[in-house]
Write a structure and sequence with these properties.
alpha/beta, CBS-domain, single chain, elongated, Rossmann fold
């Protein structure tokens, strides 16, 4: 009988109830959207200064906060860790009972407190000052004790809480969460965090499978100083040194403007290992017209070509200019097979 009564009640919800519910939802979302826009407009040089501190951190970013700020801090630490910035959450109350030992001089601290006067943070903040551990604050109170202690303070705009009583953290925690996301994403971009890097940290589940499917050669290829390249008139002895230093099992022979003339592999060296070979020009022993691939190609295509040709490397070219080199091990490490 009770379940029947409940069904009747559910079926007779009035349109007034629906209208009131939607009005409440729209009010909350409108307040939080406006606050997010105010946050975006308020960001300045302090944001970049905070990124500088986190990027220079050789240890971990320790994220902390109490109550609802603590729940947000847990999420921010998880997002940072999964996007290439090692981080962990330390509960401020537990820190005062031994967990300060989790924080080292190599770390930095990101402390969240809407009021900036959360007393549970006091021991942790004092610890950062004593041992010169960089401290970044996120707070809505620019005149707070936390701001005064911090090396960098990211101040939230003055925004109305969505709670009708103005008490429950709602808008303020949304702003903290969003600011944490901006820090994580900006650090990703500074570090050049790639889909391949993402896969390494997310080897299971649908996200990982989707990452593998869209990995491109440009995400995995070796570039810049990692590239083994030499001119055609270089002595084979010098080519051997360069191959050894770069440790990729081959070297590209290029023109002055980086057009690929040929390739010398470990096998080419062995086949030409005769008296006087080391004083000959590299052009004499190179393989002309090596197989190449474009940077926009899927990494799986590179694996297919290497398997088919029974080779372990492909030079990556764009408009016939060498821009990278992809090795089969780069693909295997990223889970592309």
């Amino acid at each position: 009988m009770a379940s029947e009564n409940q069904a009747v009640k559910s079926a007779t919800i009035s349109s007034n109830d629906v209208d009131g519910d939607l009005a409440s939802a729209h009010r909350v979302l409108k307040l939080e959207v406006e606050a997010l826009q105010a946050l975006a407009d308020s960001l300045g040089a302090e944001f970049s200064q905070a990124l500088d501190l986190f990027q220079a951190t050789s240890g971990r970013v320790v994220v902390t906060g109490m109550g609802k700020s603590g729940h947000v801090a847990v999420k921010i630490a998880a997002t940072l860790s999964s996007t290439g910035t090692p981080a962990l959450f330390v509960h401020p109350a537990e820190a005062s009972h031994g967990d300060l030992g989790m924080i080292t001089p190599a770390d930095s601290v990101l402390a969240l407190s809407n009021s900036g006067e959360t007393h549970e943070l006091s021991d942790l903040v004092a610890y950062t000052r004593r041992f010169k551990i960089p401290l970044v604050a996120i707070t809505a109170n620019k005149n707070s004790t936390l701001v005064e202690a911090a090396d960098v303070a990211l101040t939230l705009p003055d925004s109305e809480e969505a709670c009708p009583m103005g008490l429950a953290p709602t808008t303020s925690t949304t702003l903290m969460m969003a600011l944490g996301d901006t820090i994580a994403v900006a650090l990703m971009e500074r570090k050049g965090f790639s889909p391949g890097d993402y896969y390494v940290l997310h080897p299971r589940g649908q996200l990982a499978q989707r990452t593998i499917q869209v990995l491109r050669v440009s995400d995995l290829m070796n570039t810049g100083d990692q590239l083994p390249l030499a001119a055609g008139d270089s002595k084979v002895a010098d080519v051997l040194v360069e191959m050894t230093v770069k440790s990729l099992g081959c070297i590209g022979i290029v023109t002055a403007d980086n057009h690929l003339e040929g390739i010398i592999t470990d096998g080419d060296l062995r086949r030409h290992l005769t008296e006087g070979v080391f004083s000959r020009p590299a052009r004499d022993i190179m393989t002309i017209g090596p197989k190449t691939i474009r940077p926009s190609a899927l990494a799986s295509e590179a694996v297919q070509i290497m398997n088919e040709k029974k080779i372990t490397n492909l030079f990556v070219t764009e408009d016939d200019i060498v821009v990278g080199l992809i090795h089969i091990h780069d693909c295997l490490r990223a889970g592309v097979a």
